[in-house]
Design a protein that fits this description.
Structural class: alpha+beta
Low-confidence stretches: 1-25, 373-377
Number of helices: 19
Strand order of the largest sheet: 1-22-3-11-12-4-5-8
Oligomer: single chain
Shape: globular
Strand content: 15-25%
Helix content: 25-40%
Bound molecules: 6-diazenyl-5-OXO-L-norleucine
Largest sheet: 8 strands, antiparallel
Distance between the termini: 8 Å
Number of strands: 22
Mean pLDDT: 92
Radius of gyration: 22 Å
Length: 570
């Protein structure tokens, strides 16, 4: 039997049971809290069913890439908030022999998209157009992503992998407490966009079973006909007809020409760690690299976890890194990005030269750094480790909760609103408050800049950690803090995931803290240095799903209790 621990369940376990789970360093030490520990393999995701289906595929002889296909589709069934067929994502892998790589299956702007498509005749952004309804969607990449990854590295047949997911869609999943409130929250908008009779326009309560027969049928066709069913087959035709009837601009040609792209991951060292993360069109790898390298010279351990000094130095690194992110980064197929220059040690040292431990830098006084380069420039994460030692970090999204809210009743899934990740107009913030520049303007066939940061960490040459999170612009800083928690402060995987987090993104010029996470003396100290503090704009920052390989070779899961994440394994 799989050993499953829901994070909410952990709180209810007796100390004796907890001791049974705690059998490795530092989890074996008293007063350390550990997540699920297994011997061989593990999947940590936003839903128990998705983690368990991934593990079932691993037990059947599949590897991490087979489990990716199963887990991703099981999330589309049970976690339509972010799990998807109508969205896109990124996967970073490290094979057991150390080979690394990454796959970009990010959405693309349709060919009929244009730079000013969300502006009115006065050049002002039309509210809602890039976030809600059929015009908000990019061309989906998810099916291309899971098929491309599985075809290259997987061992089982897609039909075999998808069968348990089809059964799940047919037999149904139970609505959780968090799902009840999320579904209620979007009910009116979903009805407004899709009409009263739409599948997710019905009221649902916790404990109800949702059977998504339309999605089961779509998945059956995909299992039979492969990737092309989604991009060229009946599914493609239904999708395009439906979106066009709602004023959308995605065409059959857009779908037919969509390809997932293998990209070189961003790789950098932090002390004795080697970090492998996602390259553009995600800003994740470069930005987390800049942050960690800017704080590397400081003695963080001595400062203490979440001390005022620690928060300050990390905030200043975040501020500088996001100023560069927003200026330089975009789709590498469209803009030249000075990657080595942005990650250069000397450059990053010079970026921190005006750091003043006594006073906050003002974002208005800080622009992007000048680097010389040749002019030529609501999401979900899951982590998988298979029994062969292959590691996979995958983050996938519809962007906002339930994406554009456009629901394809005939196909059983929501469409993304990823177009909002472009900069609709230079200087105007998107829904995450991110301000973009030319590098991330809209163009036909271009991928919008992402913050998704699926990441792998090696320690002493061995795979040590697999992690990532949802959270829009806060993804990068949440992943950075989780790595620092485990490395600098010796936390277990579960502790590193649970520890309170903060965030700064250059503009708006404020440090975000999670609700009730800020000690009053730390607050006073930061305020006295002119830091603007915002507590509780978002009650939580990220929802990290991670796996750590322990010194004895066992695996520890870190499933974030901020959401209903679960680890499963054997
Ligand atoms: O790619 C991005 O950066 C965003 N579309 C991610 C959205 C997200 O994380 C929403 N979840 N809170």
């Amino acid at each position: 039997m799989n050993r499953i621990v829901s994070t909410r369940g952990i709180a209810l376990l007796t100390s004796v049971q907890l001791l049974l789970f705690s059998c490795s360093r530092p989890a074996e030490e008293p007063n350390h809290k550990s997540g699920l520990i297994t011997e061989n393999a593990m999947v940590v995701s936003a839903r128990g069913e998705a983690s368990r289906i991934g593990v079932e595929i691993l037990k059947k002889g599949g590897n991490a890439f087979d489990a990716m296909m199963a887990t991703e589709m099981a999330l589309a069934v049970t976690f339509p908030f972010a799990g998807n067929l109508g969205g896109g994502g990124f996967a970073v892998y490290r094979m057991a022999d150390g080979e690394i790589g990454s796959l970009d299956y990010r959405e693309k702007a349709p060919m009929a998209a244009s730079r000013d498509m969300y502006l009115d005749e006065n050049g002002e952004v039309i509210p809602g157009l890039s976030t809600q309804g059929a015009l908000a969607s990019g061309v989906p990449g998810t099916i291309a992503g899971i098929f491309t990854a599985q075809a290259k590295f997987g061992k089982l047949s897609p039909a075999e992998i998808l069968q348990p997911v089809i059964d799940l869609a047919r037999n149904g999943f139970v609505v959780s407490q968090q799902q009840e409130s999320r579904l209620r929250g979007i009910l009116e908008v979903v009805r407004e966009v899709n009409g009263e009779d739409t599948f997710y326009g019905k009221e649902r309560s916790a404990g109800d079973t949702i059977k998504n027969l339309a999605l089961a049928q779509t998945l059956e066709r995909i299992a039979q006909n492969g990737r092309d069913e989604f991009y060229k087959g009946e599914t493609a035709k239904i999708l395009v007809d439906h979106l066009q009837s709602l004023g959308g601009i995605i065409t059959l040609e857009d779908l037919e020409s969509y390809q997932a792209v293998w990209r070189e991951p961003v790789v950098f060292d932090y002390k004795e760690l080697r970090i492998i993360s996602m390259a553009p069109p995600s800003s994740g790898g470069i930005t987390i690299g800049q942050i960690l390298k800017m704080v590397e010279p400081f003695d963080l351990k001595k400062m203490g976890h979440n001390s005022s000094e620690y928060i300050q130095v990390l905030t200043e690194a975040m501020r500088r890194a996001y100023a560069d992110r927003n200026f330089y980064l975009g789709d590498p197929d469209f803009v030249a990005i000075p990657v080595p220059e942005l990650l250069d040690d000397e450059y990053l040292k010079s970026r921190m030269e005006n750091y003043d431990p006594n006073l906050a830098t003002k974002s208005e006084d800080l622009a992007e750094g000048k680097v010389q380069f040749a002019e030529s420039m609501e999401t979900t994460h899951y982590s998988i480790m298979d029994a062969e030692g292959n590691a996979l970090a995958v983050t996938t999204t519809l962007n906002g909760a339930y994406g554009s809210k456009v629901y394809l009743d005939e196909l059983g899934f929501f469409m993304n609103n990823e177009m909002d990740d472009f900069s609709s107009k230079a200087g105007v913030p998107n829904m995450f408050g991110l301000i973009g520049a030319d590098a991330n303007s809209i163009a036909p066939g271009k991928r919008m800049l992402s913050s998704m940061t699926p990441t792998l960490v090696e320690r002493d040459g061995e795979l040590w950690m697999i992690l990532g999170t949802p959270g829009g612009s806060t993804i990068i800083t949440a992943v950075a803090q989780t790595i620092l928690n485990a490395y600098e402060f010796d936390m277990t995987m579960q502790e590193a995931v649970e520890a309170p987090r903060f965030h700064h993104q250059w503009l708006p010029d404020q440090i975000l803290f999670e609700e009730k996470s800020l000690d009053s003396s730390v607050y006073r100290s930061l305020s006295s240095k002119n830091y603007r503090i915002h507590e509780g704009r978002t009650p939580i920052i990220g929802s990290v799903d991670a796996i750590m390989r322990l010194p004895d070779g066992k695996l520890e899961g870190g499933a974030d209790p901020r959401r209903e994440n679960e680890a499963a394994g054997y």
